[in-house]
Amino acid sequence: MKERVKLKDGSEVTLRFLTTEDTDKLYEFFLHNIKEEDLLLFKDNVRDYNLIRSWCENINLNRTVPIVAETPKGNIIGVGTLHLRNHGWARKVGKIRVSICAWCRGKGLGKAIVEKLVDIAKERRLIAIIAEVVSPQEVALSTLRKEGFEEQAVIENISRDHKGNPLHLHIFVKYLV
User: Fold this and answer.
1) Spatial contact of 170 and 141, defined as CB atoms under 8 Å apart
2) pTM for this predicted structure
């Protein structure tokens, strides 16, 4: 899958599947394009080179479908994943995660990645997609709402940010059938 997407500022990116050759580029993305204060919002230490290498070397499209947004110069500026289960009630429900570089926010890149992940979920015949967003990610919250995700719950004061301010976990669902 390779798809060119034009952003609001007129620039173009290519959406494509993550490959085993992307380790260094993905590591550079997390190392240089994610603000220090945003690192707390990740579930994993994305600045651990060995973790990133493991992700790239162990791609299993039956468990996780990773896509990247790449500039014409070959730099990764956004990442999206669709997480799948092969058993039980969750086998028809996916979970998405999206990360974009700080300087790309508000340009439509997150929207493009979410739309591509929804398309992939529909191809996989999923019934629904779940997205979890920790406040204060207002652009992400707005993007999900605009893309038809419904906020199902908010768990208040789930954690604290780097300054000690409370964080709230927003749980969204998009029904595909």
Assistant:
1) yes
2) 0.94
Q: What is the pLDDT of residue 36?
A: 78
How many residues appear in the chain? 177
Q: Residue 106 pairs with which residues in a beta bridge?
A: none
Q: What is the CATH number of the domain that holds 120?
A: 3.40.630.30
Least confident segment among 10-14, 50-54, 132-136, 141-145: 132-136
Q: Rounded to the nearest 10 degrees, what angle do helices 109-123 and 138-146 cross at? A: 50
More confident residue, 150 or 40: 150
Q: Which domain holds residue 108?
A: 2-175
User: Who contacts 153 (Cβ-Cβ below 8 Å, separation ≥6)?
Assistant: 170, 171
Check residue 138 and give its pLDDT: 84
Instruction: Tell me how far apart the alpha carbons of residues 30 and 49 are, in angstroms, rounded to a whole number.
Output: 10
Number of domains the chain is built from: 1
CA separation for the pair 114, 97 (Å, rounded): 9
The mean pLDDT of the chain is 94
**What's at 64, amino acid-wise?**
T
In SS3 terms, 103-159 reads as HHCCCCHHHHHHHHHHHHHHHCCCCEEEEEEECCCHHHHHHHHHCCCEEEEEEEEEE
b/e for 15-41, b at 16 or more Cβ within 10 A? bbebeeebbebbbebbeebbeeebeeb
Does the bond joining 136 to the residue before it have cis omega, within 30 degrees of 0?
Answer: yes
